[in-house]
């Protein structure tokens, strides 16, 4: 036979009670189960609140009515009119008794734990009586049992301890006498030797089920709740959390101790003692197999079973020489706290024994401090102990699993995930069983931390990158198209998911931490976006505090640059095709690099030079492996390359520039290409990456434009001047053609000097053969001395640039 326990939600409405009864009916086909029931959802909270109100002399009528209405609605809906009366009558008696109790509390303005237990007991008594009666319509064998009479405890009201031997005997006797019935037993409540009602602690109905299961040597204890068993993490925090098919008792205990509220931890003990499996099932998905908690779990390939967390915790630090070598110190400290029922969640002690840190519920911190001050008055007076310090707004994250014991590198993986996401660890504790490693972090970082750690351990699942994109122009738009098309490929081949959590252009900005749809981002941004504001875009990105976060700058603007530093300092990586950042002051360039390194995040800007061509990456790898750059020669303006490759025969200069712009090769302002500024930025970035601390003024640039074009004050003006000066360009073209040469705008870095010059080259020159927007770069280095390393290909255009940004994004954290 089995013991089936149904929680608050499962008994919370007429609809759910019907489902519950169909589960019981199905089980009954095998053998009569014992059914343990909680109070209807919300009722225990209402009862607690009413009791406290009564103690303060406040009115509690509304809550009483609410409880009545909740039950009566179920009775009316699930019982035929003729069968309702006995239940109404009995429940009314319960409510009258409850009211009398509350009145007494009001009169005395005193709420003892004993009275509180008595008040709370009505939640389970009402629900169980009502449900047993409803069940009796379906099967005559249904019997209501006030379980408080069968579970015997000490007099520790609120959290009573069960007298196992006596209880087992009483349960067995009762069960034998009622073998042909289906028992509907009140969970949570018990009684002491004097027959006073006690309770088994919050979540105690699970415990009741375990006590019955153990007493009757049940085949299984089923805990029916509203989730699919125990999961790898709280599914409200981690969307990717999944149900665990099997857990050992210890693992289940550790997971539930640190927050997984699926099962009340002490439940495991009676079941563990008798090796009775506990199964956690979902009332609303009864066919789902749920989680088995048992002793003979199959070996698992998962390095950990799950991550649990407590979102509010305070820590208390005790330091002082008085603790060194004093064997009794921690004994005194922790027995003091335990005596006063202060639950210590976690303890760490420095190896010098000079300090002890322990975590408690924030509501217990104040009391803990005053107790310590009293207990250690002498040590404090003698300065052997410093005044205890409290830190608030903290959280605990714990990874749990028996495999940790056998697998090296688990803590490395944990701390790496936390470190990369800028999560400061305040204290660490590893259970001596090695079944858990717990860390204390800021409460504000908890969601980010749990997600990052989940990603780090459950690597079979997709790694998620959360990106915030600035700029929806030529490159931004193309990137979104590529991302949309490649999502399935990424998921299948790289186990990667890229979520666009925020988008902004100069007009509008929009956010969705779950990821914006890339099908309709454009209309969504226009229709639902808010007024754009760069500073608040960055602030919101930081505040969302998502794990594996990347800021993607697809603008040509200067304004985003000032935010990079703060973004790195928030442990957010930056991917940018915007060259303005890396080509401003050297000090700033250096600071970006140093800060990204310091905060363990990435700074990728491959597209700053040669669009998607692997130029920055190639140089970085050369430098990292100790090579030295002697010379760089390069054509790095895709626009000018296109112009010189196409400004031939009858083609006009002005028309060719226009074409380059239409093809998406130029900067948003094409003057930046033709005046050499864009090329200068690229040479400067390369020089810096090659180890030269240069500034923009150090780059010598040949002008390819006549003065009037350079001085144009607007883009229209500029194009007009190009047309006016066509003779100048024609002359250049003719001269080159006559000499059988081509025009090339070539940058050179040698001995730390950088120059960009207009040259006419013949077919013996390696840069002669180019077409389209081709870029070419040759690196002469210590290793590539006699023949340089050459990279060549299209160096401008939306597709190749967006592809480079895309590659940078997926390399973040890889
Ligand atoms: N076209 C190409 O072949 C290559 C371009 N790039 C770089 O790509 C970047 C983008 O170029 P395009 O897409 O052609 O420019 P674009 O002018 O088409 O788009 C720029 C976008 O940035 C947005 N924007 C500008 N300032 C902003 C601000 N303060 N806040 C929010 N959004 C802002 C604009 O609203 C627009 O959506 C430039 O930095 C360019 O140097 C880099 C390599 C190659
Ligand atoms: N406008 C640029 C684009 C790449 O950075 C160019 O023409 O090279
Ligand atoms: Na590149």
From TrEMBL:
It comes from Pedobacter frigidisoli. PROSITE patterns: ACT, ASPARTOKINASE, HOMOSER_DHGENASE. This is Bifunctional aspartate kinase/homoserine dehydrogenase I. Its EC number is 1.1.1.3, 2.7.2.4. The lineage of its organism: Bacteria, Pseudomonadati, Bacteroidota, Sphingobacteriia, Sphingobacteriales. Homotetramer. InterPro entries: AceGlu_kinase-like_sf, ACT-like_dom_sf, ACT_Aspartokinase, ACT_dom, AK-HD, Asp/Glu/Uridylate_kinase, Asp/hSer_DH_NAD-bd, Asp_kinase. Signal peptide: none annotated. The keyword Kinase applies. It catalyses: L-homoserine + NAD(+) = L-aspartate 4-semialdehyde + NADH + H(+); L-homoserine + NADP(+) = L-aspartate 4-semialdehyde + NADPH + H(+); L-aspartate + ATP = 4-phospho-L-aspartate + ADP.
